[in-house]
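Students often ask why we bother predicting the structure of a whole assembly rather than each chain alone. The short answer is interfaces. A chain on its own may look different once its partners are present, and contacts between molecules only exist in the joint model. In this exercise we take three input lines together and write out one structure for the complete complex. Read the inputs first and try to guess which parts will touch.
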Amino acid sequence: MKGMTLIVKTITDFVAAFIVVFGAYIVLYGHLTPGGGFAGGVIIACAFILVMLAHGKEQAFARLPEKAAHALDSGGALAFLIIGWLGVSGGFFFLNVFGRGEMFRLLSSGMIFPLNIAIAFKVGSSLFLVFAALAMFRRRSFRSMIEEELS
Amino acid sequence: MTVYFLCMVLLTLGLYCLVAKKNIVKKILGVVIMDYAVNLYLITIGYKHNGVAPIIEKATPTAMLERFVDPLPQALVLTSIVIGLGVLSLMVSMVIRLYEKHGTFDMSQISKLRG
Amino acid sequence: MENIAPQLYTLLVFMVIGSVVAVETKNLLSAVISVSAVGFALSVAFLFMGAPDIAITQLVVEILVLIILIRGTILLDNTSVETHRDTLAVVTSLIFFGLLLGFGAMIFGSKGFPEFGEPLMRVSRVYVQTGLPATYAANIVTSVILDFRAYDTLGEATVLFASVLGALALLRKDGKVKGEGVAAA
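Now the answer. The structure tokens for the assembled complex follow.
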């Protein structure tokens, strides 16, 4: 699909990196301030979708290739499961066996921190792939089919 | 009580749009409105008068813990919102395929039996 | 804030009016924009009720819903709704939904239902009191979804995975044109 005008492209180049940083902030501090993995993952996907809408699908896939997006998607879900299985060593599925750390610090609260990151990867790359698939689908109206036949 | 009744009105509007309209995209809008109504109802169940958000800071006195709103419905709604987005993307992809096959968005044309 | 009932009622009435506009208008782009207005008002309502996590999530998801729905309508040449209506379906649905609202009013006005603003909090009392000492997470909602109830979050990740997989499988190839299907029949 085509991109947009020059103004939109310039602003997108300027802003998209800040959106990714903001999304990463909401993900990483999810156990201390509002937010968490879901909201941050959707914000990071929004940054890539902005690049896709402004420049076109090829540019977006140059920043994040399709195979890498599939790998991040499946890897996020798998990491979630593996952290759950690590809890079985303490007796229960999803038992919090990591070290707790100090309160109100970034690297604290056991398994919540890596789980937030895994969820963010999963949600962000899933939504990016769905948008790429929706954008890729060309519409074939009857008129364009006739024009193809006549040309 | 009136707040819950208005949530039910929103749910009924979404359900009416899903059932009685012919265009497929209108039906999808009905499902989206029903999703909003259910999430609103769940959060409204958990509200406490003069409540604050359930986030503890370093300087929070222990008496503030009594004023927190209910965090359990918020946990349910957080996953429900993102699942609604996933289901919506699946519905729109089905609509795209249906349009490719039948050429129309009218449900009465699509659901006719063909010999 | 002291009593949020006036603000909450204003937002709810705005949402109901926006949904009525979305249901009844003939132009599909107007309907999509009305539904998005309802979504944004919902995000503000969540903020009034003390749920900032949910407000952030609803806001960004609403933006993506708007983009997906616009993709489903104007990019597919679907701009207006045809006008003939099915009277039997409308009348039957109005009768049933009147019954639904009547039952709803009966249940919400009954004695055993907790009032607005006084939740039961039988399970949540434990989560609020022991959330910070047990998990060292200051955000209690995060500690509920990722420590006390992490199994439910696994179910949610699975549902999201399955729905995205279904959407990708449906949109894998470019579609055939309708002309071919009609000519073959």
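Check your guess against this: Chain C has a mean pLDDT of 84.
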